[in-house]
């Protein structure tokens, strides 16, 4: 299966996105987590999603190969980036699939740009996380801004990270896209800790319960209940189910793994199966494909 890299201008920044072509298949836009990058879904795509969907996965602003402005990390700015991407691709109404922060961005788009969203797939994203979420995410945030002597050292550290309860070969492409390596081998994450912190703080001021209540498209929330850190799940079942009740028409299913590992191995296969079933229920809501082949 091929993969194509593209760079476009949208909302005054350069946005990088990956295209996984599948001619004749329905389009799916996938949005990654807060410190992640466009390769976050490599495990799900390898698990078979790329056989059934023509997938687009952008690096959100401040991550990966996309521009990293000093300011402008509100949910509105993120949303306008994605609307610009949809315009570029000629996608009238998208099926959105978002993990964690990307799920919240998908929810925001669904509520505030309803004419551009046909259906919504939330991967471990809800209006409220575990009360200990800030401490639970410290191991993930702690890799940002650190200088590692080589990529091999960085990768060994990631293999030992507490949230990575097992290792899947698809994780390596994700972590390779997570960093830049200078001529001496010094390795550092592409994401800037200050920018990511600004995003995290901004999330806490958003009226997420109200936003979820304004989602009227069909939705499904796929919830990973495995231990993430601190012997707890990042999104407990009670909060996930509460989120599904806020949305007018939202299904719920449990996926193997934790908030991170759900995207790989058995969890990835279960996500693929759930998306296939869900899409059959909503495909009548997706306009006839008018996508213009991207050449950016």
From TrEMBL:
Record has Zinc as a keyword: no
Domain AB hydrolase-1, chain residue ranges per copy: 28-141
InterPro entries, A to Z: AB_hydrolase_1, AB_hydrolase_fold, AB_hydrolase_sf
Gene3D superfamilies: alpha/beta hydrolase (3.40.50.1820)
Any single Pfam family the record assigns to this protein: Abhydrolase_1
Source superkingdom: Bacteria
The keyword S-adenosyl-L-methionine belongs to this UniProt entry's keyword annotation: no
Protein name: Alpha/beta fold hydrolase
One Gene Ontology MF term: hydrolase activity
Keywords, alphabetical: Hydrolase
Transmembrane feature ranges: none
